């Protein structure tokens, strides 16, 4: 069944005010009185809703649904600003794969320079991509999209995480490949996990030092060199496999 | 260091005959006498090679390298023909993630119809994409690319695999999520594993039956609905995580 995210709290009678959502519901899908869809408000609970009036874009809530497909841990990925439209791609795929946050920061070796005006526009675009992907993959939550203007603002966030992993190619080369699995076997429900990725050129030695000082653990993601836009997908899949598919002793 | 795949067996003196490779080496990278690159022949061994003559496109082998980044199991992914250019994307990413084979077949619910002429052209294009991705991710082997004209030809291949997994959305819904992890914990080195994916519309009930009769095991890839081009990336990441990153009792 078609699913839509709606801003705000759930009310018994809902008027769709977001233009894109209203257009998709009543122009594209041509929903009519009595048709049912799933609405997801900011509390993350899916609710079955029935169209009361298509001209007034009104729906009534029928019942709460139990379906919850969120990862049991909250995973944020943070990429060094990559070239071109790679963040669009990362946003769509990372949303499908369950990311709680999709962030990017100006890394030492980022080639692109984005000013705050450009960043604001890009956030808006990525939020739309994330919403589309979250609706299609039936998520309960929209990921938090943040593009940091200054690296210091990104660094100021690190203390909020329970675990920080630094995806570091040299860790793969050094054969430190068991580290991520060891750490993931010890994570607990609802913990906040951050994965930091470099841009195309990688993470600079100075950045590695900074991230490590903030508690970051360098980890390898297998022996093959992954492109900057592929590594986050590996990380999210690995977390899902470790915490959703693997039955653990605890 | 730049890496190139070369057809055939390794010889002490190598003449580059492939036009695209020669162009990249001597026009794009402007390799000159004495410059070193890594060559990978069909035996999958990386060899350090030194340019002897750029005008004659000749290199000499310096030494064998020990570097082997191939997955310890051979994973083939088979997608129902998807829409548009999705196979291009899947080919690039699956190559980075270590796929031994990237196949596609005409599924019951595939929307596109490709005739054999179109398929031959498409294989050629995908092989180029795979070669570029394999060189960048420093693979030892190029994946085997196959697009099956008839589903029967695909089905005839199933007996060659040690394990067949069917990525089936209903398995995720039914909560059968531990199955893949249980099976992956039991795989042995060099086993041949096949993952079968449906096109956008999914795998038909008749196909599920056929794949199951051939020994296929329906598995879920987490509770979120993944697009047809995202599911293979999850599967390959999960296999890498399970067999390369997780230390196992055996």
From TrEMBL, chains A, B:
Pfam family, one: Methyltrans_RNA
Location in the cell: Cytoplasm
Keywords: Cytoplasm, Methyltransferase, rRNA processing, S-adenosyl-L-methionine, Transferase
Enzyme class: transferase
EC number: 2.1.1.193
GO terms for cellular component: cytoplasm
Presence of the UniProt keyword NAD in the record: no
Principal location listed in the UniProt entry: cytoplasm
Domain Ribosomal RNA small subunit methyltransferase E methyltransferase: 70-239
Domain of life: Bacteria
Translocase found in the keyword field: no
Gene Ontology molecular function: rRNA (uridine-N3-)-methyltransferase activity
InterPro entries: Alpha/beta_knot_MTases (IPR029028), PUA-like_sf (IPR015947), RsmE (IPR006700), RsmE_MTase_dom (IPR046886), RsmE_PUA-like (IPR046887), tRNA_m1G_MTases_N (IPR029026)
Family under the similarity heading: Belongs to the RNA methyltransferase RsmE family.
Gene3D superfamilies listed in its UniProt record: 3.40.1280.10
Gene Ontology biological process terms from the UniProt entry: rRNA base methylation
Stated role: Specifically methylates the N3 position of the uracil ring of uridine 1498 (m3U1498) in 16S rRNA. Acts on the fully assembled 30S ribosomal subunit.
Source species: Streptococcus ferus
Protein name: Ribosomal RNA small subunit methyltransferase E
Start and end residues of each Ribosomal RNA small subunit methyltransferase E PUA-like domain: 17-62
Reactions catalysed: uridine(1498) in 16S rRNA + S-adenosyl-L-methionine = N(3)-methyluridine(1498) in 16S rRNA + S-adenosyl-L-homocysteine + H(+)
């Amino acid at each position: 069944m078609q699913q839509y995210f709606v801003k705000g709290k759930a009310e018994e009678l809902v008027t769709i005010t977001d233009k894109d959502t209203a257009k998709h519901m009543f122009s594209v899908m041509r929903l009519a009185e009595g048709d049912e869809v799933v609405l997801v408000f900011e509390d993350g609970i899916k609710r079955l809703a029935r169209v009361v009036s298509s001209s007034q874009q009104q729906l009534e809530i029928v019942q709460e649904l139990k379906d919850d497909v969120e990862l049991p841990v909250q995973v944020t990925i943070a990429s060094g600003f990559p070239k071109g439209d790679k963040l669009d791609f990362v946003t769509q795929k990372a949303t499908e794969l369950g990311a709680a946050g999709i962030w990017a920061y100006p890394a030492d070796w980022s080639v692109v320079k984005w000013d705050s005006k450009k960043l604001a526009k890009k956030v808006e675009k990525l939020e739309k991509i994330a919403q589309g992907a979250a609706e299609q993959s039936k998520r309960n939550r929209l990921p938090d999209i943040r593009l940091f203007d200054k690296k210091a603002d990104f660094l100021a966030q690190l203390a909020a995480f329970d675990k920080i992993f630094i995806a570091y190619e040299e860790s793969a080369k050094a054969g430190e490949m068991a580290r991520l699995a060891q750490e993931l076997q010890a994570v607990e429900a609802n913990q906040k996990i951050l994965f930091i990725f470099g841009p195309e050129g990688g993470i600079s030695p100075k950045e590695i030092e900074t991230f490590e000082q903030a508690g970051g653990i360098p980890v390898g993601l297998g022996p093959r060199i992954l492109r900057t836009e592929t590594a986050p997908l590996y990380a999210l899949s690995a977390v899902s496999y470790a915490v959703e598919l693997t039955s653990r002793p605890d």
